[in-house]
Amino acid sequence: MIYNLEMETLPTLKMEKLQIVRLQETLDRVYNKVKFYKEKFNEKGIKIEDIKNIADISKLPFTRKQDLRDHYPFGLFAEPIENIVRLHGSSGTSGKPTVVSYTKNDIKVWSELIARAIVAAGGSKGDLFHNAYGYGLFTGGLGLHFGAEELGAAVVPISGGNTERQILAIQDFKPKGLACTPSYALNIGEKMRDMGLDSRENSLKYGIFGAEPWSEEMRATIEDMLGIKAVDIYGLSEIMGPGVSIECHVAQDGLHIADDHFLVEVIDPKTLEPVEDGKDGELVFTTLTKEAFPLVRYRTGDIASITRRKCQCGRTTTRMSRVKGRTDDMIIIRGVNVFPSEIERVLLKIEGLSPHYQIRLFKDGPLDCAELHVEMSDELYLGINEDLEHEKVQMLERKIKHEIKSACLVSVKTVMGMPKSIPRSEGKAVRIVDQRNSSPVMLS
Question: Which residue intervals define the domain AMP-dependent synthetase/ligase in the entry (predicted)?
Fold first, then answer.
């Protein structure tokens, strides 16, 4: 089933014609309504009528997150407050947050895109939809909520946290759909087992997971634990929120971008030049229909690739790969670049470990070093009579070091813990603990 058959299966040439019309409308909007863009365009001598095809977008300046912070709170809005019906924001890790706005029509468009996303995930009208994303300034909770209602699903707006209450609601209400971060889905499954329940014996059929990078190995773990189809959803508050793209449950092979509302590019984050389809680079988005907060060539910081091949589900939209990581969460260990998701892929293939881990960064003289904290599975822990010095534990630690060295080309010190020794997530998982400064800084 496809929610918007016309737009999700539009032939490429027709989509490009629609995109260029909407791009020109967006450029006209930002030039006339956002001082920041008017000044940028004038500096570069850009005339909107010169942007005649998709390739011409490279003539336009980039927008960065710092630009949003520099114009905090409302300096990049294209509509006055009296035309805005909602504000969202992201929690700033270094100072002020980013603030985004929506008109009534923006909310309508967003809701339709989430409805598309839920259908792509395997959902349908009449479903009961368990929404465990956080409600508030974060776009996840309300974004999924309004989209599910647009589809005609009944929403359980349970938000995050209080995992036992979540499980009770799943048992009693019997939802088909689950939405939360992948790390929290793991937490729910583990808690079910701790309560003596069979985590696969539930009403859930599909899960929509996002807000943090996760690997194919993590998908397999979640699907096995909960007995569901798990799909990745992507979005960021600056562009809209969740629903910019989503995997389909048919292929689970790349996230379908809503091309009629967003124009995607992939660039080399160092040279800023475009990279060819299939190659990893930084995702750059231009909004095509946003009224209150249009953005031109927004550098997301997310690393992924795209393909324009038709999917077996029938959709013709551009697909992006899973996000490999962010340009600002890449770890450099003794000169080698590593993303946490690459380490995750290795760990989840090793028998005897739980799917939870943390990377702690510290200084060894002038060099950055990493300490990998993992925990053994319940089965291994009980099998060695709770002896953390057991020979099997030492063999497992050596295996971890060897596999990470082979796959990621870095050496890490491994710290093995007992089950449940790593904090569980009720939202975004804390994968990196940066102890290179005097005061540890948590990076999600």
Answer: 90-285
